[in-house]
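A protein record in our archive is deliberately plain, so that people and models can read it alike. The tokens are whole numbers drawn from a learned vocabulary of local backbone shapes. For reference, a complete record is included directly beneath this paragraph.
>
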Amino acid sequence: MNFGRGPAVVLNVGGTRYSFSREVLKDFPLRRVSRLHGCLSEQDVLEVCDDYDRERNEYFFDRHSEAFGFIMLYVRHGHLRFVPHMCELSFYNELIYWGLEGSHLDYCCQRRLDDRMSETCTYYSAEEPPGEPSAGPRGKARRAAAEGGKWLERMRRTFEEPTSSLAAQVLATVSILFVIVSMVVLCASTLPEWRAPENRSVEEQSRIIEAICIGWFTAECIVRFIVSKNKCEFVRRPLNIIDLLAITPYYISVLMTVFTGENSQLQRAGVTLRVLRMMRIFWVIKLARHFIGLQTLGLTLKRCYREMVMLLVFICVAMAIFSALSQLLENGLDLGTKNKDYASIPAACWWVIISMTTVGYGDMCPITVPGRILGGICVVSGIVLLALPITFIYHSFVQCYHELKFRSARYGRSLSAEFLN
């Protein structure tokens, strides 16, 4: 560096000072900082930073100090993650300013950034591009298309985001009431008194209520499909698949009743009909559209599938080892006392799984001293193996909860503005 005095260089980023030697700036990982090494005049310096104090040899950058702190952690340790409670796009702008790219982020943060950018691009693609002429027939057509796109976007948010508007909140409340009513009717229909011959009228009323609930869910699903932007993506979403699984059995049972009638053929198909009717329990999962807790659980399972698979592998390996050893110690060796509960390795697997999860029903237990010692080791191993991936899953759960909470708060602010207007 041929400009400035003193052996040290001070960077002031948003009020936080960092001191470096001149030699460090030459090969600094941040391109904007390393450019200071080649500055020959104060004019060159002001092209890189926002202000310069000649007396202190201090370079001022009017940027986010906390974001730069996380970037400095990447410089020192090689790991770059998002700042908590900061918008992903704002942090990405900070990266671009300092000369980094999104590829420098850790994999989980890259995925968050990609999702956020795709949401932003999808949202603004429906709006009319600025600066286009609006006069003439083409301009009117563009305005009409833009208004139609905004209307579809408003409808989509009404059905997909319960906190996006007053209408969305009312719609979500009605949908929750229908889910609760359908679940109460489903549970009550399994009572013996409900199915008694003298309660035929009550059963008929429950069928009417069921038909009304199914009609609401069907209309809601159809409207959401019509206003969706990508029909194929709509069909592939897990919640939409669950909606389809919850609605379809009702129509299948109605068609079977229409074509077979109340005769012996329908009685033989009674098991199938009971299974189809019981699939209505999937309606409970529809509540995930309206409650952050259920959404957080689903998003955590989606992001932590590797940890979940790792946990299942741990359990399966331990199950194979302990079940084989317990069967050998309790039944395989001729020790004078054979435990019939451990007659085979598959039977011993049941004891291993309830022991590793510390459930311990007590329906089967080892009776030999070596078997009891093995049981103690099995219980302790289960606690350790189950605890290993829990930390990763917990941190992902907290992160997903904060993301969904801020997203809901953002729509809540728009709801408050709509209410005031």
Summary: Residues 188 and 346 are 38 Å apart (CA to CA). Strands lie at 8-13, 16-21, 51-53, 58-61. The mean pLDDT is 77. DSSP finds 18 helices and four strands in the chain.
